[in-house]
Specification:
alpha+beta
């Protein structure tokens, strides 16, 4: 019985993990940017499924904080012109969906 529960849990968990990370889900990187916010360099990777990943370009890895998360959001906006929504932290990287302003038709 216990083995059945583990199998069911794993079968539900694997698709969720694929949804969480664009790289695992098979999304392809469309554009790559570098953005500097308050003297800190970030790598911004835009995927073809409308998601974005912001990576701290530091050598020693991120010391994650709310201030760093805000700078990551600013870096994404600076690089793409879009806001980051539904974002989450995964191993020091900020991953979220891009929400771009509608372009007025002329």
């Amino acid at each position: 019985m216990r083995l059945g529960r583990i199998a069911i849990t794993m079968s539900l968990l694997v698709p969720v993990c694929g949804w969480l990370s664009p790289a695992i889900a098979g999304a392809k990187a469309v554009e790559r940017y570098k953005a500097v916010v308050e003297g800190q360099t970030f790598k911004v990777i835009r995927y073809d499924n409308g998601t974005v990943k912001i990576v701290d370009g530091g050598v020693f890895g991120p010391s994650y904080s709310y201030n760093l998360r805000d700078r990551m959001r600013q870096a994404a906006k600076q690089a793409t012109g879009c806001e980051v929504a539904d974002d989450f932290d995964q191993d020091g990287k900020l991953i979220g969906k891009l929400v771009c302003p509608e372009v007025a038709a002329s």
